[in-house]
Amino acid sequence: MRNNTPPAAEKIALTARDGYALTALRYAAQGTTRGHMIVAGATGVAQLFYKNFAAFASAQGYCVLTLDYRGIGLSKAASLKGMRMDYLDWAHHDLAAAVDLMAHDRLPLFMVGHSFGGHAFGSLPNHDRVARFYTFATGAGWHGWMPRAERLKVMLMWRLAGPLLVRWNGYLAWSKLGMGEDLPADVFHQWKHWCQFPNYFFGDPRMPDVAERFARVTTPIVAANALDDSWATPASRDAFMAGYSGTVWRAVDIDPARSRLGAIGHMGYFRRGSEPLWQAVLDWFDAHFQHGETGLVGHPGGVVSPGVSPGVGPQ
């Protein structure tokens, strides 16, 4: 049987807040533990995708937890057909349980998000236990924020390919399109619905309380997006991140040409060769120990356009 656990990681059973059985991987800190960290992954992306970043952070003294949300990767049931869930169960129950596990009285807890991870943070019932949050590729998901070519592909997925795959299989067989892990049908339907609004679920009349929930977040945030990320452009990011109205957040535009990292797109933030981006995250987290909870200054939405050091600057 193939072992899907990276050598540096310990596989652990994680029980979601509603009792759902999940599988997580914990990377022990090397040397003295500076803090704890959770990686909140993207929709349809298995936790093993983040193993190189997790190992990088653990080597610098962070105890890191990655997890697969219900229905994904190592937390996948035998079949997704007929599986019922709310898309935000991944935040309300799964990711919240990770925070419960990793929050520590003596050491700060940090979180790194990717795409959906930025959506999930404001929906956490225990976001107040996270000292700082750094998210990559978080955007509103509305096709109107995308370049024309990508807009056409996304509309084809929402209106034709996605519905057909759900109808034939009983779930979104996304892997058949080479786009990631298969997804429960309920996730597809909610995702499609929210992506019709320019500011994502903040525009959904069926969710009148979402703005109030996000406004309660006071954790300092950095939201970094590559200029070649056609799914989550800086404009898309700004439209969504405006929902974090109760905290100061910094927008970072990553220029792949200036950073010399090559193409980044929506997924390249966590691939090998992206270590300068990872180091910027850890540098900003490290600043917490010098500045504490008041560490981020400036105005919401202030943009920094660095080369290889996004997130580094006035703390």
Question: How does this structure look, described?
Answer:
The protein has ten helices and eleven strands. The protein has 315 residues and is of the alpha/beta class. It has a nine-stranded mixed sheet with strand order 1-2-4-3-5-6-9-10-11. A two-stranded antiparallel sheet has the order 7-8. It starts with 8 loop residues before the first strand and ends in an 11-residue tail after the last strand. Residues 293-315 have low confidence and may be disordered.
Q: How many helical stretches?
A: 10
Q: Count every beta strand, where a strand is a DSSP E run of 2 or more residues.
A: 11
The secondary-structure element order is: EEEHEHEHEHEEHHEHEHHHE
Largest sheet: 9 strands, mixed
Radius of gyration, in Å, reads 18 Å
Strand content: 15-25%
Strand order across the largest sheet: 1-2-4-3-5-6-9-10-11
Measured distance between first and last alpha carbons: 48 Å
Helix/sheet category:
alpha/beta
**Low-pLDDT stretches:** 293-315
Helix content: 25-40%
Q: Would you tell me the overall average pLDDT?
A: 90
How would you sum up the global shape? Answer: globular
Give descriptors for this structure:
alpha/beta; 315 residues; disordered C terminus; two-stranded antiparallel ribbon; 10 helices; 30% helix; 11 strands; nine-stranded mixed beta sheet; single chain; globular
Summarize the structure.
The protein is of the alpha/beta class. It is 30% helix and 18% strand.
